[in-house]
Write a structure and sequence with these properties.
Elements (H helix, E strand, L loop, with lengths): L8 E4 L3 H11 L4 H15 L7 E4 L3 H13 L8 H13 L4
Parallel strand pairs: 1-2
């Protein structure tokens, strides 16, 4: 039988500003916890190359469609490596000043 290969996904917010907006909107963390989560997220995003696929979680319907597309065609990346690298750099640069 052929070996089963798992896929490693990383889900990223569309921007750090949007991530902060989402976390604040939940109202589940104190300010110090929120700051820690934002720092942790930026650190984790820098490891995007460790994953098979990176999905920008902007709109839920589009995110689900992208995941389905990847699962149907696991050897096809949804973004070219240069495009993805640029998107990640823009994401990391999008944080509050």
């Amino acid at each position: 039988t052929p070996a089963v290969r798992g896929l490693r996904f990383s889900f990223c917010p569309p921007s750090q500003v949007e991530l902060e907006r989402r976390l604040r909107g939940r109202q589940t963390e104190a300010q110090d916890q929120l700051c820690r989560r934002l720092k942790d997220a930026a650190r984790e995003i820098r490891h995007w190359r460790d994953f098979d696929h990176v999905v920008v979680n902007d709109e839920i319907k589009r995110t689900v469609l992208e995941i389905r597309t990847i699962l149907d065609n696991p050897d096809t990346a949804p973004h070219g490596p240069l495009d993805l690298a640029q998107r990640i750099e823009e994401l990391l640069a999008s944080g509050p000043e």
